[in-house]
Design brief:
By secondary structure, this protein is α/β, with parallel strands linked by helices. The chain has helices at 11-24, 37-44, 60-69, 88-97, 109-120, 209-220, 245-248, 267-278, 293-301, 363-366; strands spanning 3-7, 27-31, 48-52, 77-83, 101-105, 130-138, 141-152, 156-161, 170-175, 184-194, 199-205, 221-226, 229-238, 253-265, 283-289, 310-311, 313-320, 326-332, 337-339, 342-344, 348-349, 356-359. It is globular and about 70 Å long. The structure holds zinc ion.
Length: 373
C-alpha cells in the first residue's frame, strides 16, 4: 500500500492528516488504538506512520522505536505529533526513539502538508509551469525541443524535455512568458544531462542587464491565494537586480512568505528586501515559513530582514557523523525548546546508516532572531 498510517484518537489530527494525504494522492489508514499500530504497519507497510504522542494508553516513543527496529519496516518514516510546549525531556526522547520528524500542534494544514511532503520526498508544491523551447544545432541540423522549466534562477535553469537532447554543449533558450513580456530569448550552456537527455541543467550566458533583470523578477516570487492568506512563494536570489516593487503593490491583509526557495542574498538584496517590507502598508499580519538556510542566516545577522513578522518554521542543516550524510530538515519554531541560555534542537535518526542526524550549526547564532519574538 502506498499510504500513510495515522495513529491517533484526536479529531484535529485526523482531519489535518486526511486533507494532507488527499492532496498528496495517497491512501490513508487510521488506528485509534495504540496496540494495533505495529500490527497494522507490518501488514500495510505504509510509507509514513504518524504517531500522536498524546494517544491514551500508548507510549508513542516506544512505538516509534519498535517500528525503527523492525527490518521489514526499514523504509517507513515516522512523524511524531505533540501538543503544546515541548520539554527538554521530550527533545531527548526524539533522538533516542529515532523518529524522522516532529510536528507540534496546533499546526495549520499547509504546515502539516509540507512536513508530510518532505518525509515522502515529493515536491512540496507544483513546480512552476513555464514552457520552454530549446534550439540546438546537432551536426548540420537545427533541432528544437519543447519542455518545462523545473527550476529557475538568474544563473540557470533545470529543464525537463519531452524528447531527449544529447551531445549538445550550447543552445538557445526561449522561455514562454505571458504577455506583455513575451518570449525571453537567452543563450545557455549545458552543464549536466540526466535521464538520458530528458533533464538538462543549463547555465545562462551573456545576459544583458535587461535580460538579467527580467530573469530576476521572473525567478523571485509567485502568489498563491489560500484561505484568506496570501502565500508568497519566494524563489531565487536577492541581489542588486531584484525589484520587489511590483510585488509590494499586490500584498494586503495576512501574508505568509515561504522562503524555502531563497538561495542567495547579498547586501544589496538585503537592503532592497528590508525597504520592501517597510513599505507594506496594506499588510496587517506577516509571517515567514520554511526559511531557507540562506534566508535564516541573513535574518540572524540583520534582524530587519524579518520586519515585524513571526517565523513559523526554518530549514535546518543536519549532519550524520557516522556516515557523513548531510540533510536539511524542516523545523517548526514551536518545536524548539529554549533553556535559559541555549536552544535545544531535536536530533533525528539517520536514514542512511541508522546513526544520528545532528543539527549542524550553532543553535544560538542560527536562531538568534527567535528570542526577540
Ligand atoms: Zn548516517
Amino acid at each position: 500500500v502506498d499510504g500513510i498510517l495515522t495513529a491517533s484518537s484526536s479529531e484535529d489530527l485526523r482531519s489535518l492528516g486526511s486533507r494532507a494525504t488527499a492532496r498528496l494522492g495517497l491512501a490513508r489508514h487510521v488506528v485509534a488504538d495504540g496496540r494495533q499500530v505495529l500490527e497494522t504497519a507490518r501488514r500495510l507497510r505504509p510509507r509514513v506512520v504518524i504517531i500522536d504522542v498524546a494517544m491514551p494508553n500508548t507510549d508513542g516513543y516506544s512505538l516509534c522505536r519498535e517500528i525503527k527496529a523492525d527490518p521489514a519496516l526499514a523504509t517507513c518514516r515516522v512523524m511524531l505529533v505533540l501538543s503544546g510546549l515541548v520539554t527538554r525531556d521530550e527533545v531527548e526522547r526524539f533522538a533516542e526513539c529515532r523518529c524522522d520528524d516532529v510536528v507540534v500542534m496546533p499546526a495549520i494544514g499547509e504546515e502539516f502538508h509540507l512536513h508530510l511532503a518532505d518525509l515522502l520526498g515529493v515536491a512540496r508544491r507544483r513546480t512552476r509551469r513555464i514552457a520552454v523551447q530549446l534550439a540546438a544545432r546537432l551536426g548540420r541540423h537545427p533541432e528544437t525541443r519543447p519542455g518545462l522549466v523545473e527550476n529557475l534562477s538568474v544563473h540557470g535553469a533545470r529543464v525537463r524535455l519531452e524528447s531527449p537532447l544529447t551531445d549538445v554543449e550550447a543552445l538557445r533558450v526561449s522561455l514562454d512568458l505571458p504577455p506583455p513580456a513575451g518570449p525571453l530569448q537567452l543563450d545557455a550552456g549545458v552543464v549536466w544531462v540526466r535521464d538520458d537527455g530528458k533533464l538538462l541543467g543549463l547555465e545562462f550566458r551573456g545576459l544583458t542587464p535587461t535580460t538579467h533583470e527580467q530573469l530576476a523578477n521572473l525567478a523571485v516570487w509567485e502568489i498563491v491565494e489560500d484561505d484568506g492568506v496570501q502565500r508568497v512563494i519566494m524563489e531565487g536570489d536577492f541581489d542588486e537586480y531584484t525589484d520587489f516593487a511590483p510585488l509590494g503593490g499586490r500584498l494586503r491583509g495576512r501574508v505568509e512568505f515561504d522562503a524555502e526557495g531563497v538561495r542567495y542574498i547579498n547586501s544589496a538584496g538585503t537592503h532592497r528586501w528590508v525597504h520592501f517590507l517597510r513599505e507594506l502598508h496594506a499588510v496587517t499580519e506577516c509571517s515567514f515559513s520554511r526559511c531557507s538556510v540562506a534566508f535564516t542566516s541573513q535574518a540572524a545577522m540583520v534582524p530587519e530582514v524579518l520586519g515585524t513578522g513571526r517565523v513559523s518554521s526554518v530549514v535546518a542543516p543536519y549532519h550524520c557523523e557516522r556516515c557523513g550524510r548531510d540533510e536539511e530538515r524542516l523545523l517548526q519554531t514551536q518545536a524548539l525548546v529554549r533553556d535559559r541560555q541555549a536552544f535545544q534542537i531535536p536530533s533525528f535518526g539517520c536514514p542512511g546508516c541508522g546513526g544520528s542526524l545532528v543539527f549542524d550549526e550553532l543553535p544560538n547564532s542560527y536562531l538568534s532572531f527567535l528570542p526577540r519574538m
